């Protein structure tokens, strides 16, 4: 199941996203959490310390490949998981779209 | 960059046990650029005051326009019956479903200050229990 969680800044959406991810992982689901906020802080509500969070490479835009079928990812999701995600408590994988210092460059 | 997010979401969660959760910006630009396009459901977190509810309503309309099968509200930081009544009334007026009600939880500020995840700070807190309920009724029931 793919869920989008959105809301005004300060609405608590990131606390809810992180907690929902952890709860679902504890129930035995394989959870991929994606932080697509320009001020990413999902890692904290998932329980991943900021030092670890800052060490993960963000997703490069060359992941996308133009084919006759349209635009496709050049790697499988498992490859992306292992190269560009952090594994947090309860086995939740976090994919980071942009670090604060790089915000706006992507 | 948004095209990348979009493609990742598109291929994410292949199996029935897979869940992909996208935490995204509240702005209509983000949603309309199609970041959310491949999702099956959109949860809009709203607080019980007009500006927040109005943002939620606008984004819900966008979600529906994007063709998302389920667009729902989650009422957050609810302190009392009056707060809940305000969200319920708004939801009813605009024919929106409320998928969950999360009580105001002052302990969340402590967790944030200590840089501890809410679920690690207090796994039995009202907020964590309410989110667990959403996982049970919405995610499991909505499969």
Task: Write up this protein.
The complex is a heterodimer of chains A (106) and B (143). Chain A is of the alpha+beta class and 106 residues long. Chain A has one domain (13-102). Chain A has four helices and six strands; from the N terminus they run E-H-E-H-H-E-E-H-E-E. In chain A, strands 2-6-5 form a three-stranded mixed sheet. In chain A, strand 3 and strand 4 form a beta hairpin. The relative contact order of chain A is 0.20. Chain B is α/β, with parallel strands linked by helices and 143 residues long. Chain B has a single domain (17-140), classed as P-loop containing nucleotide triphosphate hydrolases (Rossmann fold, 3-Layer(aba) Sandwich). Chain B is 49% helix and 20% strand. In chain B, strands 2-3-4 form a three-stranded parallel sheet. The model of chain B has no long low-confidence stretch (mean pLDDT 88). The chains are: A alpha+beta (106), B alpha/beta (143). Strand 1 (2-7) of chain A pairs parallel with strand 2 (41-46) of chain B.
Task: Give the topology.
The complex is a heterodimer of chains A (106) and B (143).
Chain A: E1 2-7, H1 13-26, E2 30-36, H2 42-46, H3 50-55, E3 64-67, E4 70-73, H4 77-84, E5 85-87, E6 93-96
Chain B: H1 2-11, E1 18-24, H2 28-32, E2 41-46, H3 50-65, E3 70-78, H4 81-93, E4 97-103, H5 107-113, H6 118-121, H7 126-140
Parallel strand pairs in B: 2-3, 3-4
Summarize the structure.
By secondary structure, chain A is α+β, with helices and mostly antiparallel strands.
Strand content of chain B: 15-25%
Oligomer: heterodimer
Structural class of chain B: alpha/beta
Strand content of chain A: 25-35%
CATH class of chain B: Alpha Beta
Would you tell me which CATH topology of chain B applies?
Rossmann fold
Tell me the radius of gyration of chain A: 14 Å
How many helices of chain B?
A: 7
Number of H- or I-type helical stretches of chain A: 4
């Amino acid at each position: 199941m793919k869920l989008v969680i959105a809301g005004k800044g300060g609405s608590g959406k990131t606390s809810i996203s992180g907690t929902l991810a952890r709860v679902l992982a504890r129930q035995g689901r394989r959870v991929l959490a994606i932080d697509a906020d320009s001020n990413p802080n999902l890692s904290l509500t998932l329980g991943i310390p900021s030092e670890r969070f800052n060490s993960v490479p963000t997703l490069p835009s060359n992941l996308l490949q133009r084919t006759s079928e349209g635009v496709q990812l050049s790697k499988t999701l498992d490859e992306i998981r292992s190269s560009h995600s952090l594994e947090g408590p309860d086995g939740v994988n976090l994919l980071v779209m942009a670090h604060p210092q790089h915000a706006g460059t992507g | 960059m948004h095209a990348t997010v979009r493609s990742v979401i598109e291929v994410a969660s292949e199996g029935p046990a897979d869940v992909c959760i996208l935490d995204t910006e509240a702005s209509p630009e983000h949603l309309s650029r199609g970041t959310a396009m491949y999702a099956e459901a959109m949860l809009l977190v709203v607080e019980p005051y007009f500006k927040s509810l109005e943002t939620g309503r606008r984004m819900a309309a966008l979600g529906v326009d994007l063709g998302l099968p389920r667009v729902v509200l989650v009422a957050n930081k609810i302190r009392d019956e009056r707060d809940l009544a305000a969200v319920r009334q708004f939801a009813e007026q605009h024919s929106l479903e409320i998928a969950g009600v999360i009580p105001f939880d002052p302990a969340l500020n402590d967790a944030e200050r200590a840089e501890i995840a809410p679920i690690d700070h207090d796994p039995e807190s009202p907020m964590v229990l309410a989110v667990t309920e959403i996982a049970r009724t919405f995610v499991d029931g909505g499969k």
